[in-house]
From TrEMBL:
NCBIfam families: PRK05218.1 (NF003555). GO terms for cellular component: cytoplasm. It comes from the Eukaryota. The keyword ATP-binding applies. This is Heat shock protein 90-6, mitochondrial-like isoform X2. Coiled coil: none annotated. The gene is LOC111305554.
Length: 794
């Protein structure tokens, strides 16, 4: 017979068995030879093992070895230790070593078609290689001046043939020998620059800074993004011969030959010739090349020249019309030769990267005009920025940056919800990497800030297009955000208040969004906020100014949310606060209320919504409140019974002075402004809306005559229909004056018309005015007449 045990019973049974077994085992083992761990060597400490094991145990093998009695056996832990000890003495079979194999054609296909997402970066990669070659030459020539014996300028030249689809890139750098061609271009992912840097670091005289760009060894193969065939002709100052490397797309082999054509010889450096694919011949247009150079390689430290068509205006003589010539002779006028202006076309080299990287200069040496000019050229702006910040960060992360605050917001103003604004241009060693970020360097609410960031420490993927998430990026983001706040704070403290007014008009919503999304920077955001107030309806004030104007006994910062300054000014919630000369902030922007609720406090002063219940103005008088509650408490219950579920409670108000009543929201409910905004949402939760609406609190002013009359009506006749209808009308009026939308406007209008009719009935009519009255007719009793047939017969 089998019994099913619960899990708890099984666990208790195992624990009890273990305890009993350990007691039974202790005696025989203590009287025999102690068991030692042979795998430990000199450690002879006795080890005790539980007999409960989870694996198989070969008791026959070890009982004789350990001289155990009465069938005692050990767990699998000791068995495995002994087995390891035995196997350690056995000779190990020799291991065979293999190298990873790669299918070259497939690897090339991955590099060309999968590594890069944008084909136009091929020019950036090839120019970077050319810049590295020039940098290597300049570095090596310090110790070996003979490398510059050919006296060729250090530059890069790009020439195009748009008819045949050919691009030629020539640099006067270090060049390559035959063996270097094999090693660098014949071995995929072997970076000659990385190899050179390693040698420089190992050398003793490596005290100079280098600006070499390459690191992955695959940039050259980006040429096959747009080319069917690539020809590399190179001449190293270390060799007397010039060699030509030639490779084709989707090929697994390449050729190297010596250059024998005198017309193709170069004094030093490398010339790349790209034979473009049929669909990519648009890259061979000179204007396209010029644009790519300015975008990606504008700040490369060596001059880049492109072959451009130019025009010069000349005046040339033209033949006169014979008829006009005869007329001129007849008039005996002085003969003048006629000319006309023509544009003469020619081709010449044009410098493409004339703008210098301003962030590499000392900030003390750069003028404001130079900063503004750099801003306009880099970001295609027409107006000067409001502020700029040029700084260098050193230490754990090193980078240079120039940041700007624009004077105007972009057209459409959609950047507040679009984090990919292309306003931050990322450079690595002066080579443009990307301007397409999804909040990695700046949060969304600071997406309006423009600038450049140049660093050598950024973790990029192999294509150098994607900024990888890392601790370095987070540190950079924190420091960039801090500098941006310093710029904005500088504008706010400027003597010219118009600058910050312009900034706030364009980017105020961004900072309010930051209050919602960036809790860590609340202390930096709050001083930058601006609002209208009950004491400053024409000019916005800061929170610091509000705190300075606070009354000595005032503990909180009061605010009210509305759709306009006029609505906020006329709200009944302000009546008592205005009497006490307490300033109230007007939140008239839809995002204001949410932003303030996220801030919660400023300088240890809590934000208080005056349209919500339990408003404390610091003037409580408990004796007076008790008297009023005793007089109007039952009246409040009577009004609550009439209104039913429309309100959560009816209370005596401490915020009213001239209005009879007001409708306030619950402490954790929506205000009238928030309810209006939530109703306007495209996708709204109606269940939540109904719940938050149920938290409305009806407050009455006991000093108002209408409330006094209702109190008297309750005491004399609580079931009077006119009194009950007055309560309904009072609620509807409070609904509108408090900013809420009535559920049934037509019904409210009917009640108003009815009350108006009662109020004005006979007020302006007099006895002199005769109203047409229908003639009075007496009521006659009907006489029953029997029917009579013709001729006097029935």
């Amino acid at each position: 017979m089998m019994h099913r045990l619960s899990r708890r019973s099984v666990s208790a049974t195992l624990r009890a068995a273990t305890i009993r077994y350990r007691i039974a085992v202790a005696s025989p083992i203590s009287s025999s030879t102690p068991i030692t761990d042979s795998a430990v060597g000199s450690d002879n400490n006795t080890r005790w093992y539980s007999a409960i094991n989870g694996g198989k145990c070969n008791t026959a093998r070890h009982s004789a070895h350990l001289n155990l009695k009465s069938g005692l056996f050990l767990g699998s832990r000791y068995e495995s230790t002994a087995a390891a000890s035995d196997s350690a003495n056995l000779p190990q079979p020799p291991a065979e070593k293999y190298e990873y194999q790669a299918e070259v054609s497939r690897l090339m296909d991955l590099i060309v078609n999968s590594l890069y997402s944008n084909k136009e970066v091929f020019l950036r990669e090839l120019i970077s290689n050319a810049s590295d070659a020039l940098d290597k030459l300049r570095y090596l020539s310090v110790t070996d001046p003979q490398l510059l014996k050919d006296a060729v300028d250090l530059n890069i030249r790009i020439q195009t043939d748009k008819d045949n689809g050919i691009i030629t890139i020539t640099d006067s750098g270090i060049g390559m020998t035959r063996q270097e061609l094999v090693d660098c271009l014949g071995t995929i992912a072997q970076s000659g620059t990385a190899k050179f840097l390693k040698a420089v670091k190992e050398s003793k005289d490596a005290g100079t800074d280098n600006n070499l760009i390459g690191q992955f060894g695959v940039g050259f193969y980006s040429a096959f993004l747009v080319s069917d065939k690539v020809v590399v002709s190179t001449k190293s100052p270390k060799s007397d011969r010039q060699y030509v490397w030639e490779g084709e797309a989707n090929a697994s082999s390449f050729t190297i030959r010596e250059e024998t054509n005198p017309e193709n010889l170069i004094p030093r450096g490398t010339r790349l010739t790209l034979y473009l694919k049929h669909d990519e011949k648009g890259f061979a247009h000179p204007e396209r090349i010029q644009k790519l150079v300015k975008n990606y390689s504008q700040f490369v430290s060596f001059p880049i020249y492109t072959w451009q068509e130019k025009g010069i205006t000349k005046e040339v003589e033209v033949d006169e019309d014979p008829v006009e010539a005869n007329e001129a002779n007849q008039d005996e006028k002085v003969e003048k030769k006629k000319t006309k202006k023509v544009v003469e076309r020619f081709w010449d080299w044009e410098l493409a990267n004339e703008t210098q990287p301003i962030w590499l200069r000392n900030p003390k040496e750069v003028t404001t005009e130079e900063y503004n000019e750099f801003y306009k050229k880099t970001f295609n702006e027409y107006s000067d920025p409001l502020a700029s910040s040029h700084f260098t960060t050193e230490g754990e992360v090193e980078f240079r940056s120039v940041l700007y605050v624009p004077a105007v917001s972009p057209m459409g103003r959609d950047d507040i919800i679009n984090s990919k604004t292309k306003n931050i241009r990322l450079y690595v060693k002066r080579v443009f990497i990307s301007d397409d970020f999804d909040g990695e360097l700046f949060p969304r609410y600071l997406s309006f800030v423009k600038g450049v960031v140049d660093s050598n420490d950024l973790p990029l993927n192999v294509s150098r297009e994607i900024l990888q998430e890392s601790r370095i990026v987070r540190i950079m983001r924190k420091r960039l955000v801090r500098k941006a706040f310093d710029m904005i704070l500088g504008i706010s403290l400027s003597e010219n208040k118009g600058d910050y007014e312009t900034f706030w008009e364009n980017f105020g919503k961004h900072l309010k969004l930051g209050c919602i999304e960036d809790r860590e920077n609340h202390k930096r955001l709050a001083p930058l906020l601006r609002f209208f107030s009950s004491q400053s309806e024409d000019e916005m004030i800061s929170l610091d100014e509000y705190v300075e104007n606070m009354k000595p006994e005032q503990k909180d910062i009061y605010y009210i949310a509305a759709d306009s300054v006029s609505s906020a000014r006329n709200a009944p919630f302000l009546e008592r606060l205005l009497e006490k000369d307490l300033e109230v902030l007007y939140l008239v922007d839809p995002i204001d209320e949410v932003a303030i609720q996220n801030l919660k406090s400023y300088k240890e002063k809590n934000f208080v919504d005056i349209s919500k219940e339990d408003l404390d103005l610091g003037d409580k008088n408990e004796e007076k409140e008790n008297v009023i509650k005793e007089a109007f408490g039952k009246t409040c219950d009577w009004i609550k019974k009439r209104l039913g579920e429309k309100v959560a409670n009816v209370q005596i108000s401490n915020r009213l002075s001239s209005s009879p009543c007001v409708l306030v929201s619950g402490k954790f409910g929506w205000s009238a402004n928030m309810e209006r905004l939530m109703k306007a949402q495209t996708v709204g939760d109606t269940s939540t809306l109904e719940f938050m609406k149920g938290r409305r609190v009806f407050e009455i002013n006991p000093e108002h005559p209408i409330i006094g009359e209702l109190n008297a009506a309750f005491k004399s006749n609580p079931d009077d229909e006119d009194a009950l209808r007055a309560i309904d009308l009072l609620y509807d009026a409070a609904l509108v004056s408090s900013g809420y939308t009535p559920d049934n406007p037509a019904q409210l209008s009917g009640k108003i018309y009815e009350m108006m009719g009662m109020a004005i009935s006979g007020k302006w009519s007099t006895s002199d005015v005769q109203h047409p009255v229908p003639p009075h007719t007496e009521t006659l009793e009907a006489e029953v007449v029997e029917p009579v047939e013709a001729g006097g017969q029935k």
